[in-house]
Design brief:
Structural class: alpha/beta
CATH superfamily of the largest domain: Type I PLP-dependent aspartate aminotransferase-like (Major domain)
CATH class of the largest domain: Alpha Beta
Number of helices: 13
CATH topology of the largest domain: Aspartate Aminotransferase, domain 2
Strand order of the largest sheet: 2-8-7-6-5-3-4
Helix content: 40-55%
Distance between the termini: 26 Å
Radius of gyration: 21 Å
Number of domains: 2
Number of strands: 12
Length: about 375
Amino acid sequence: MFEAGAVLKKEFGEEAVFDFSLGNPDLEPPESFSNVLRSFAEKPFSGMHGYMSNAGFDETRDAVASFLSLEQGVSITGSHIIMTCGAGGALNIALKTLMNPGDRVLAQAPCFMEYKFYTENHSGRFEMIPPNEDLDLDIDALERAIDRRTAAIIINSPNNPTGRVYSEKTIRELSSMLERKEREIGRAVYLICDEPYRKIAFDGVTVPSVLRLYRNTLVATSYSKDLSIPGERIGWLAVHPEADDSENIVNGAVLCNRILGYVNAPALMQRVVGKIPGAAVDVSRYQSRRDMMMEGLSAIGYEFQKPSGTFYLFPKVPGGDDLAFVDALKDERILTVPGRGFGAPGYFRIAFCVPERTITDSMKGFNRVFRKFMG
């Protein structure tokens, strides 16, 4: 869809194409980010761009750990933080470290489908578990799927593509189930939390700390969404200090950071993010766009759950054929993503991190396609 969008924009012009396909944040980074970046550019020092430990600069890891301890209520030090090339790098070094060939990794649909490819890259087997009807975690289904070859479960909250934030009650139930299954199968089942949207939550919703609620947890994240710097590829992996074999996991992840070809997270970005822990874009602007999108689509008749976070809406497809529906939207120069791309056919994803004009001007096309598929 991204490539299709480029062709359409070239043919019809940017303003005539309504591109909701890619979660590419359009807000500029916060002023604090720009100020720190400028200060490094204006006052360079010897070794500023040099090699560092494969885990990252100590001062950056310490800064991340200090903020994480306050944010999530878990005492963690820099020695359990590995700076990575975005959340994708963090997920890959985690999976490479935790899995033996043939091990299984589970995730709840709908989810980011690259989890599957990451798992298979490291000789593992990936399985998506269907969600509850309301797209919440189905704890019972996850429990039935766990066996002695299950190395990890990946969860993503706030969730791409649904925008759902899993409640503390749900996370506590998941934690209790995993502790029970670990005793039953005789091995640790690690919970890998993919959290690049943690700071993009709406309506006063609090994203629960999985680190605080489950000991065998690893957190993977990036600054792509909350600082609006996706092209800089900077993030980190945190390993719970009390996780089974935590020291070996950290050492393994540091080694994998190198042998998978990342080597180090970018030096300049490490230095910048280490100076501004907790900084984020103005999330209220995404909430305003969410509300605009919801109001317009609801008036037409689309059905969807109100997202508590991220910048995605995941409506049901009238008639259920998400591929045909997305193709019909494309004829209106509206670009979206079919739900089957996330393991959830019958839905489609809208990324509303776009200018307000794109939202308002697209509604006539959304209406025409809706009426066509409703007969």
